[in-house]
């Protein structure tokens, strides 16, 4: 299941180089993904399985507000070299197209799937955009509660951690749309998986 992510730093000439820290964060959280700095303030990542990790990586990077993120879904030529700069295949071309298009979009995200899965790719992208919109509205307090909930803590444990009542935790999670976010992420992953299966001939469109 190849998913290629091409990521380019926003306003890189006015900001310090954030690529090394981003690659370290990617390697720590997604150790099974191959990640390589490519050219300038840009890096690529290849996920060969687990579309949920692709969703989580997109959301992690987009939260920083520092990146144009392009996702390419399609076949790749095998064997894939350790250095992604030498890798080839339609998915890499799609990711290049996607990141260039992301630079023209207000949310800095674009997904491109190779035929015959273009429509399915749009479906996945729309849900990802909705998730980003939900998260953009979160307050710092909402993020603090949501991150602990994502880690599996109960509302009582979150309250203890944050020094607030369980009722206040519930209010923060509701305001952060945490439950909807948590339900939507697996749906986005399933849409990515279906898109990938169509592009690589695993299932019919």
Molecular structure report:
The chain has 205 residues and is an alpha+beta fold. The chain has a domain at 3-117: Reverse transcriptase/Diguanylate cyclase domain (Alpha-Beta Plaits). 53% of the residues lie in helices and 14% in strands. It has helices at 19-29, 51-64, 90-102, 118-136, 140-150, 155-162, 166-175, 178-199, and strands at 3-9, 34-37, 42-47, 67-73, 109-113. The protein has a 5-stranded mixed sheet. α2 packs across α4 and α2 (51-64) crosses α8. The longest helix has 22 residues, at 178-199. The radius of gyration is 18 Å and the shape is globular. The mean pLDDT is 94.
CATH homologous superfamily caption of the domain at 3-117: Reverse transcriptase/Diguanylate cyclase domain
Order of strands side by side in the largest beta sheet? 2-3-1-4-5
The whole-number mean of residue pLDDT values reads 94
Helix fraction, binned, reads 40-55%
Shape annotation: globular
Element-by-element helix/strand order: EHEEHEHEHHHHH
Radius of gyration: 18 Å
Helix count, DSSP H or I runs of 4 or more residues: 8
Instruction: Write down the CATH class of the domain at 3-117.
Output: Alpha Beta
Q: How much strand content do the residues show?
A: 5-15%
- In total, how many beta strands? 5
Structural class: alpha+beta
Give the low-confidence spans.
Answer: none
Question: Distance between the terminal alpha carbons, to the nearest Å?
Answer: 16 Å
Shape-level CATH architecture of the domain at 3-117 = 2-Layer Sandwich
Query: Could you name the CATH topology of the domain at 3-117?
Result: Alpha-Beta Plaits
Major sheet: size, sense and barrel closure? 5 strands, mixed
